[in-house]
């Protein structure tokens, strides 16, 4: 049953992404991206990734969509048709996709409990994190303690991006206005 | 191996290639960022697919010692990736807004056309 829902949701995500890519109206495309994120959040929930699911619903479907709508209101909301040849991009995309599909033939089956990913550090986290960290949510233990430096790096990236946005839209513009 | 066991990977590749195509073939800058978002989500789907165990539950500890948990590690990695993804989206959109202020357009062709006169 859950495999059926998995296949259904993934197919819907594929269709939504295709529609978003083909749509000329940027407003429509942004809305479809929001739907796409929400579908992926639903799919994460089916696959037991509850933390990822609510982060994607809040951040991916919420904040990203709002940021894009804000950009559209400051710029233009219609895409112009380009008269470039699409043959080279399509060729590159199909060749890359073909090579990647060839690569998946060696991948472990979906939901295979003996896949290499389940035999390395994950059993340690599942067995010991309750005693070592004392937080029931294993994802929280790994995020904040075992891989704490990773999270510190993430915060650095967000800080850098925030400074970049401020420099691009905030401080620089005010100085330009002062010069004029 | 049959199609059900690899369906997730193929959808990942479909989404990845849709995003990739949008980035390299579309001239509109907002559309490129939408493509980047689709590409990102495809990577999330790949990682979360690999963490699933049949009969597993969400990795939150329970009293019953026989419980099977799904692999928490890909969840952690993707949690980080989602937040970083939004940060890069925000930076990209800020660049689009600045480009629109400087050039009055967000179409790549028109920007190249204007650059030719400098």
What does this structure look like?
The complex is a heterodimer of chains A (180) and B (118). With 180 residues, chain A is an all-alpha fold. Chain A has a domain of 78 residues. Helix content of chain A is 76%, strand content 0%. Chain A contains seven helices and no strands. The model of chain A has no long low-confidence stretch (mean pLDDT 87). Chain B is built from four helices and no strands. In chain B, α1 packs antiparallel against α2 and α2 runs antiparallel to α3. Chain B starts with a helix and ends with a helix. The mean pLDDT of chain B is 89. Chains A and B meet through α1, α2, α3, α4 and α5 of A and α1, α2 and α3 of B.
Question: What's the helix and strand layout?
Answer:
The complex is a heterodimer of chains A (180) and B (118).
Chain A: H1 2-22, H2 26-46, H3 50-74, H4 87-104, H5 122-132, H6 138-146, H7 148-179
Helix pairs in contact in A: 1-2, 2-3, 6-7
Chain B: H1 3-25, H2 29-51, H3 72-103, H4 108-115
Helix pairs in contact in B: 1-2, 2-3
- Overall 3D form of chain B: elongated
**What's the shape of chain A?**
globular
Order of helices and strands of chain A: HHHHHHH
Write down the oligomeric state.
heterodimer
Going by helix content, strand content and strand pairing, the class of chain B is mainly alpha
**Poorly predicted tracts of residues of chain B:** none
Fold-level CATH name of chain B: Helix Hairpins
Largest sheet of chain A: none
CATH class division of chain B = Mainly Alpha
Computed structural class of chain A = mainly alpha
Distance between the termini of chain A: 65 Å
